[in-house]
Task: inverse folding
């Protein structure tokens, strides 16, 4: 049975946690033993071999780069440009995984049908994990023009906010509506046909 995982922070964990998802899970965990920079070190649950073993053949894979203003004490980047650069580095990791044959991007319905065809029957050993590219929190969109640039790179879903206050909307544990910038973002997304992910929106922004 094909399993579709609707949210995986693969690139962020690969780059910020330094996890090589091409390796066996036990090896990833063992390599983190003794590391204390993050609370969940040594307890990872995802890698490509395990996804294949569990028939998780399709997923929504994220980009994430939070911009934090001086009054925001959450972890994040101190300018939208830094946040954008972070997501571009994460995108480069997905491209590297595509070149290695580990992943394959889904950018249209035809590609989605092809992915389901591979995984819903008897996938060959080493079949790529197919992914829909999503942006978790839109703070890295320096301008509205960056939305179309991202669409051309294959971005197909955007969550306007992540945790805390955001540029385009307010997220988990924050409050307030989306404002003029948020409405402009929604219009641009609608024009391009980008999926709206409301997962992290606070009640007012929702």
Result:
């Amino acid at each position: 049975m094909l399993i579709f995982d609707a949210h995986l922070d693969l690139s962020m964990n690969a780059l910020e946690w330094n996890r090589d998802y091409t390796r066996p899970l036990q090896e990833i965990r063992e390599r983190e033993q003794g590391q204390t920079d993050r609370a969940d070190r040594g307890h990872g649950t995802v890698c490509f071999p395990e996804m294949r073993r569990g028939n998780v053949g399709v997923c929504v894979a994220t980009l994430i780069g939070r911009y934090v203003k001086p009054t925001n004490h959450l972890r994040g980047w101190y300018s939208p440009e830094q946040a954008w650069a972070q997501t571009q580095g994460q995108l480069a990791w997905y491209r590297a995984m595509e070149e290695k044959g580990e992943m394959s991007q889904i950018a249209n319905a035809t590609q989605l049908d092809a992915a389901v065809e591979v995984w819903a029957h008897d996938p060959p050993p080493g079949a790529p994990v197919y992914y829909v590219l999503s942006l978790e929190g839109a703070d890295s969109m320096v301008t509205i023009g960056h939305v179309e640039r991202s669409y051309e790179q294959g971005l197909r879903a955007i969550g306007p906010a992540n945790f805390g206050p955001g540029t385009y909307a307010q997220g988990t544990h924050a409050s307030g509506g989306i404002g003029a910038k948020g409405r402009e973002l929604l219009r641009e997304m609608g024009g391009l046909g980008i999926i709206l992910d409301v997962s992290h929106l606070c009640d007012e922004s929702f």
